[in-house]
Specification:
The complex is a heterodimer of chains A (about 250) and B (about 140).
Chain A lengths: L21 H24 L7 H18 L8 H19 L2 H27 L5 H8 L3 H14 L21 H4 L3 H12 L3 H11 L5 H8 L3 H19 L8
Helix pairs in contact in A: 1-2, 1-3, 2-3, 4-5, 4-6, 4-10, 5-6, 8-11, 9-11, 10-11
Chain B lengths: L12 E7 L5 H14 L4 H20 L3 E13 L2 E13 L5 H17 L2 E7 L2 E9 L6
Antiparallel strand pairs in B: 1-2, 2-3, 3-5, 4-5
Helix pairs in contact in B: 1-2, 2-3
The chains are: A mainly alpha (about 250), B alpha+beta (about 140).
Chain lengths: ~250, ~140
């Protein structure tokens, strides 16, 4: 059995002067009602593109109504086949009109960067590398989207380190700032032992802030304390580090 | 983002085999995405093909009387098109597909009508072989 593309029926000419009789109106409503399940099923097929189901069902339902109004039984095409094509066409148009093709690419990139943050936070939280399921939960994305972003990320890694993800958030800003403040091997050699004197939790928080590049709020969520508490811990940890290496550098920003 | 080594060209063929379970069809979709991207399909065509391959797997899975086995997917780049063939290698036969399977098949075929240029399926000794072909360049609505 071979499918393939049949000619899409042309819309019937609209005649505003033609009013439906009560019987026609009832039949029209019955056809719409009995095919709402089809609209819902088709909307679900587009779920993984990142739009809320409610929006998709609405688009599909409007398309169903359009297909009822445009359907011409004289063309010999089965109504559900015609409606399916119309509804899928409208769902696709919905994504096209929203510039989805552009956003999809960006969405994957953003998710990839978000996964970097989430991975760092989860490593600290769990004491091991997170699973895809855990990353999906942490980022609110589907497991499929996480895998796709990881796969796509292999390509994005080739992107220039100074490539701009957004005007105020270049990739290089995500590298953490510790290195920029300790620009000699000697400084690193001094910092290591000083870091080791800090309690494990403070070491973790410093790493999250200055190596992973997490915000204080993100650290607060990962560690399970308030953002204010993270701020206080950071200040005291940095002060201990300064004392430990005998320097009085200002806090990295 | 993509260098020459990532590109798939005419004649390149990729095979995927996985346990015939609905929850693993995600594997077929992911592989399809990767292949479509490397064959030069744009993001919308890629999404269409991914959706269509999911339907192809459903058609094969629900149209068969298999109780267990492997779904085998063969994707081939042919010029500006990708062809996909999905078959089910049965390990053990079960009950013949019921009326529910016919409904699923009908919807899947309608979806394929809207997404790809050509598709079809044949029943072979209680199993189903389903195939599709999609060209890049926005041919299907």
């Amino acid at each position: 059995m071979t499918g393939g593309r049949e000619g899409t029926p042309e819309p019937q000419s609209e005649d505003p002067g033609t009013e439906l009789t009560p019987l026609d109106a009832a039949a029209r409503e019955e056809v719409i009602t009995s095919n709402l399940g089809l609209a819902h099923q088709l909307a679900r097929r587009f779920l993984h593109r990142g739009e809320p189901l409610d929006d998709l069902v609405q688009v599909a339902s409007v398309a169903l109504v359009k297909s009822v109004d445009r359907f011409d039984p004289a063309r010999g095409v089965d109504f559900s086949a015609f409606a399916t094509r119309t509804i899928i066409g409208e769902l696709k148009r919905h994504f096209r009109d929203k510039g989805w093709a552009v956003r999809a690419s960006r969405r994957v990139q953003e998710l990839y960067l978000e996964l970097g943050h989430a991975t760092g936070a989860l490593v600290q939280l769990l004491g091991r590398n997170p699973t895809v399921t855990e990353l999906a939960e942490a980022t609110g994305a589907s497991e499929e989207a996480v895998i796709e972003a990881i796969e796509a990320g292999q390509g994005y890694r080739a992107t220039s380190i100074d490539a701009t993800e957004s005007e105020d958030d270049p990739l290089s800003a995500r590298l953490g700032e510790l290195d920029g403040n300790y620009d000699s091997v000697e400084d690193r050699a001094l910092l290591g032992p000083a870091l080791a004197t800090l309690p494990p939790r403070e070491q973790s928080i410093l790493r999250m802030r200055f190596v992973e590049g997490l915000t204080q709020s993100e650290i607060a969520v990962a560690v399970g304390v308030s953002q204010m508490h993270v701020s206080r811990l950071l200040s005291s940890s940095l002060q201990k580090l300064r004392e430990g290496i005998g320097q009085t550098e200002s806090e990295p920003r | 983002m993509t260098d020459a080594a990532d590109v798939l060209v005419t004649g390149d063929r990729i095979e995927l085999r996985f346990p015939a379970r609905g929850d693993l069809i995600v594997l077929a979709r992911l592989v399809t995405s990767a292949i479509s991207a490397r064959a030069g399909f744009d993001i919308e065509e890629l999404e269409d093909l991914r959706l269509a391959v999911g339907e192809l797997c459903l058609l094969t899975l629900h149209g068969s009387d298999a109780r267990s086995g492997d779904l085998c997917l063969e994707l081939t780049v042919l010029g500006d098109a990708i062809s996909v063939v999905c078959t089910l290698e049965r390990a053990a036969a079960g009950e013949a597909p019921g009326p529910e399977a016919a409904e699923i098949a009908q919807l899947s075929e309608q979806i394929l009508d809207a997404l790809v240029d050509e598709h079809g399926r044949e029943s072979l000794d209680g199993s189903v072989r389903a195939w599709l072909r999609k060209r890049r360049g926005g041919h299907a609505e």
